[in-house]
Amino acid sequence: MKKMIHFCYYGLASLICCVLLLSFNSKKDNSMEIQGAWRYTNGKEQTTIIITPYIFSSATYNLEEKKFISSYGGNWSINGNQLTLKTEWNSLDSTKVGTDWLSTVGVSKNELSLTGLPKKLARLDNGTPGALVGAWIITGSYNNDQVSKRRSPFYPRRTMKVLSGKHFQWIAYNVATKQFIDTGGGTYTTENGKYTETIHFFTKTAASVGKTLTFDYSFVNGDWRHKGEKSTGGVLDECWTKREVLEPKQ
Fold first, then answer.
1. Where is the chain membrane-spanning (predicted)?
2. Model confidence over 7-33: pLDDT tens digits?
3. Which domains does the chain possess?
């Protein structure tokens, strides 16, 4: 009788462990797996999504015709396979700003599916090898090697640059008015203190699309110093600060 009781006890314990393990696996954290850059195409249009630890940014454009189509994004979180995007900008519909977009995530090594999107996305990078991965807010500028910080760089108007390992997008928008202002993006590399970007879309002028620009980059007290010439001409010497420094993630 005792042997039977012990057998039942250990059998039940094993069953509980298996159930807990299956439950844990079904709710595994996908936050690391989805980070990087992804893309799907629809005819001549391509949509590139960059996911950093803090920001989800999406841009749709026609590279061949140098035409920007749309962009949306914001802060994101994930619970198991349920992604929540808190929309900070939407170029097509400003009423979406401040609302949550919910999507079920499916991810494999080189493929990402998000409910609400028409197609699966192919992986472009996994957050490497670029040295500037993350979300950066422009916070000031340099004059004679001295930085001057803006009084309020984060709210209500902000300019943010989102970078994966190989792709980038910058967005200018106003949180208070829900206004989408401008954006641009493409691919980039960092090597030997040089930041080189190739522009795939640009709202200010289509003439900049296809240009390759090289800048000096360095880190000063944790900030990114971005120095060179603008795609539209003229000198720039900017200070960018990691978003989490300005707004620690909860």
1. 7-24
2. 444 454 454 444 444 443 444 568 889
3. 36-125 (2.40.128.500), 134-246 (2.40.128.280)
